[in-house]
């Protein structure tokens, strides 16, 4: 049975349901590792075209949710409906079909160091389609343009900056024109200026391509900027689902404390990063 809080969120969301089409529906998702209960009756809905940001303390289960959603981890119980199909009940071959709709970017960008940029981006295209090389070349070029990179096809990951690697990771995540994207910390480890550019790119192409997205981030400024809706997780439960302005107005001490501590960390990081550019001689 869903707990009181989850039921409240579920009902609150569904009483206001209008013509929006649910794209991702998670109901009472539970997952434990050994004795540790990581996800406890997690429920939420993401509608078609929505940019949804998942926040919460480190170790709180965000990546675990994402892995369950893409079928990389098996949940213990609960439903995960993607485009109406409960993926927890699909056979591997059926799951692979649903996965074609997904674009995934993990925190590390996870590029293959032995492959150049073109081959990294072409990887999912070659895996899922039989398109001729010429078409693949054109597709790779278009995706690189979307992330504002040019003439980098022949470069290897070691020759790219951190921000460029993220962009190539983004280009690969959208290679197959996904309906849904799942990003885990797309701006982590980037300096604030580059992080800002990546945020703008995400806003730009999710809107342009009408992609439904679930993005995990620690960066509250980024969350407030890109989210249509924010889901906050604490101790394995959803404690609030709301718009950025609803989060900013919240009086819940858990939420206030989390946002304040994240902003403090972000500010310290931004100051540390900008001090690197001060010329000591000047
Ligand atoms: N494969 C696994 N085996 C055992 N425990 C795991 C596994 N994956 C995650 N955990 C545990 O589950 C909990 C949640 O981990 P998860 O990676 O989902 O957190 P997170 O919210 O993404 O944290 P962070 O913000 O640091 O990335 C942690 O206690 C972690 O140690
Ligand atoms: Mg994580």
Give the topology, please.
Blueprint: H1 4-15, E1 22-33, E2 36-47, E3 51-56, H2 62-69, E4 77-82, E5 85-86, H3 92-99, E6 102-105, H4 117-128, H5 133-146, H6 162-173, E7 180-184, H7 192-208, E8 212-216, H8 220-226, E9 229-234, E10 237-242, H9 244-249, H10 253-275
Parallel strand pairs: 3-8, 3-9, 6-7, 7-8
Antiparallel strand pairs: 1-2, 1-4, 4-5, 9-10
Helix pairs in contact: 4-5, 4-6, 5-6
The chain binds adenosine-5'-triphosphate (ATP) and magnesium ion.
Adenosine-5'-triphosphate (ATP) binds next to strand 2 and helix 2.
Task: Give an overview in words.
With 282 residues, the protein is an alpha/beta fold. 42% of the residues lie in helices and 23% in strands. The chain has a domain at 1-97 and 213-265: P-loop containing nucleotide triphosphate hydrolases (Rossmann fold, 3-Layer(aba) Sandwich). The chain is built from ten helices and ten strands. The strands form two sheets. Strands 6-7-8-3-9-10 form a six-stranded mixed β-sheet, sandwiched between helices. Strands 2-1-4-5 form a four-stranded antiparallel β-sheet. A hairpin with a 2-residue loop joins β1 (22-33) and β2 (36-47). α4 (117-128) packs across α5. Mean pLDDT is 86; it is low at 1-18 and 278-282. Bound molecules: adenosine-5'-triphosphate and magnesium ion. The site of adenosine-5'-triphosphate has 11 residues, from β2 and α2.
């Amino acid at each position: 049975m869903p707990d009181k809080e989850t039921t409240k969120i579920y009902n609150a969301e569904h009483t206001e349901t209008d013509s929006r089409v649910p794209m991702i529906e998670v109901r009472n998702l539970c997952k434990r590792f050994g004795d540790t209960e990581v996800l406890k009756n997690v429920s939420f809905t993401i509608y078609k075209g929505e940019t949804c940001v998942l926040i919460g303390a480190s170790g709180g289960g965000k990546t675990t949710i994402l892995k369950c959603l893409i079928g990389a981890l098996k949940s213990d119980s609960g439903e995960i409906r993607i485009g109406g199909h409960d993926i927890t009940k699909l056979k591997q071959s059926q799951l692979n079909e649903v996965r074609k709709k997904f674009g995934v970017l993990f925190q590390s960008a996870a590029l293959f160091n032995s492959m150049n940029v073109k081959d990294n981006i072409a990887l999912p295209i070659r895996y899922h389609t039989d398109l001729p090389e010429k078409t693949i070349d054109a597709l790779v070029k278009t995706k690189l343009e979307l992330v504002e990179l040019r003439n980098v096809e022949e470069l290897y990951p070691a020759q790219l900056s951190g921000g460029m690697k993220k962009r190539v990771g983004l280009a690969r995540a959208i290679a197959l024109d996904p309906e849904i994207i799942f990003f885990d910390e797309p701006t982590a480890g980037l300096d604030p200026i580059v992080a800002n550019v990546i945020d703008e790119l995400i806003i730009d192409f999710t809107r342009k391509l009408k992609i439904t997205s679930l993005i995990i981030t620690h960066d509250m400024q980024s969350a407030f900027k890109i989210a249509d809706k924010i889901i906050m997780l604490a101790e394995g439960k959803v404690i609030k689902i709301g718009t950025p302005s609803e989060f900013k107005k919240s009086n819940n001490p858990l939420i206030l404390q989390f946002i304040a501590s994240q902003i403090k960390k972000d500010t310290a990081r931004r100051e540390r990063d900008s001090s690197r550019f001060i010329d000591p001689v000047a």
